From TrEMBL, chain A:
The lineage of its organism: Bacteria, Deltaproteobacteria, Bradymonadales, Bradymonadaceae, Persicimonas. It comes from Persicimonas caeni. This is NAD-dependent epimerase/dehydratase family protein. InterPro entries: Epimerase_deHydtase (IPR001509), Lipid_A_modif_metabolic_enz (IPR050177), NAD(P)-bd_dom_sf (IPR036291). It comes from the Bacteria. Gene3D superfamilies: NAD(P)-binding Rossmann-like Domain. It holds the Pfam family Epimerase.
Amino acid sequence: MSRKRRGRKQRVLITGIGGNFGRAVARRLHRRYEIIGMDRRPVHHMPKDIDVENVDIRRRRAEDVFRRERIDAVVHLNIMHDPRTRQEEHHAFNIVGTQKIFQLASEHRVPKIIVLSSANVYGPDPTNNQFLKEDAPLMGGQKFDAIRDLIALDMFCNTFFWRHPEIETVILRPVHIVGRVNNAPSRYLRLERPITVMGFDPMIQLIHVEDVVSAVERSLTPGVRGVYNIAGPSPVPLSLLFDKMGKTPRPVPEPMARMMLKAGWSLKVSDWPVPELDHIKYVCMVDDSLARQKLGFAHEYSLDRILDDLSRPPRH
Amino acid sequence: MGLTQPIKRLRERIDETLVDTIDPSIWANIQNMEAGQNEYGFDPFGFEPDFLKYIVPVAERLYRKYFRTEVVDIENIPDSGRVLLVANHTGQIPIDGFLLGCALLFDKKPARMVRSMVEHWVPTIPFVSWFLARAGQVVGTRENCRILLGRDGCILVFPEGIRGINKTYDRAYELERFGLGFMRLALETNTPIVPVGVVGGEEQMPSIWNFESLGKLLGMPAFPITPTWPLLGPLGALPLPVKYRLYFGEPMHFEGAPDDEDRVINAQVDRVKDALRELIDRGLDEREGVFW
């Protein structure tokens, strides 16, 4: 209420605004909120009323933004997911960057931080419960190194959540985000003749990028805090997704698929690390009932709309 | 790409032929089954009622012709609502679970789908993982069981587990130690328990001796030696055409705290065990022979 009385829109800082998802969040929020963006990459196609600071979140200039503006919420999206980047760089950027943002938010009394983690932190595993709740152990790093920093980051945010009760921390763990974006699951589903592991057809949950944006928007509501799994329409087998898109997958025996991926990765013709194969073998599904209850989240995009959007080229 | 159309057409033809071989009333029963499936025909665990068309033609012959299964008091299973079926586990290979599933599909009106809990390593086996998931089998975690009961499912439990299935023939129809997990879950979710006495299974593959060390070496839970296996090779591993009898007991209701001490839970489990023993004894008394 007090902010309303001050008669200005709430000010939201979006880190990593230059990415596809950052842009989608900015486009949705800029009418209701005053948006400040931060990214070390060049940022294009942004609504005119958005100020973008071209700065690495780990540098001192990032602090100036906090000092200058009275920020009401931070949407932290500046998390690197590129498996091709050197592990050290990947790790340092994600962990140090996040720590810096949280530290600044705490020093400058930002009342809310929203972090985009992923349901992949739970990891696909044959022993998984069909639906993983928010308190399930984060086992994604067991076989897959590249996800370890996302897990460390998620855990860091959790610790922060308990140590700074004055800040409302929201951690969102969405399932595979697809739509007109350019991430690993979208690229896989867009393949003309996708490879599958012979004899496996796991149930898959997908969510449209715009629905994740809605979840972020809902998380901005004052009073909301905690960890939330975010999922879209009801899960379906992987084969049904291809069937609906009119694609014929190529089932390959697992040892061969592993060999192909390994060779493809070393020769830099594929961007798929071998452990990603588990995602098309085992289930990694989440129970999103908490988000539906507490956040009032409801997905809008049906499976047909998701697949329709997916078959169009990614937006730039 | 040119090949996909003929393959699709061939598959449709096979599907139609398979459906034609199924008794229309059974097929209608399966199609009208409420298994919580979504608009694409799958439940969240990957079960697809439509997939049963690939199983039913063979399953029905095995159930009716090979094992000539007889069911007694099947109406004790409620038509709807959550229920735990607790049965004795026998016979080296888990045909008892399969026949129980068949009984509820073929002999119960309206049909009910039994979901049983499979071992953790099953999802790692190619094709088997896919096949069992489509046929409604679920990885046996407590949380999965809880979700299914929450969705008013009918779940089959063998509280003896591997202990029951691997015993030698001299201990036929003796009940092994029961696990307590099923009782805690029943108390927690307020689920009635229907005991099911399975008679016939012990004779399908009477094990004379369990070659434990070889089993361990091969990574198998046991290595049974039967009069035919391994003497007759793979043929000897086939179950004998024994007659199966399934006795369904009255639903039992339990009350109490699910997190009570083992001693308290054990007393309740013993009541189920006694009911089960009675059903098995009745079955053994009533049968005139192993094969007829």
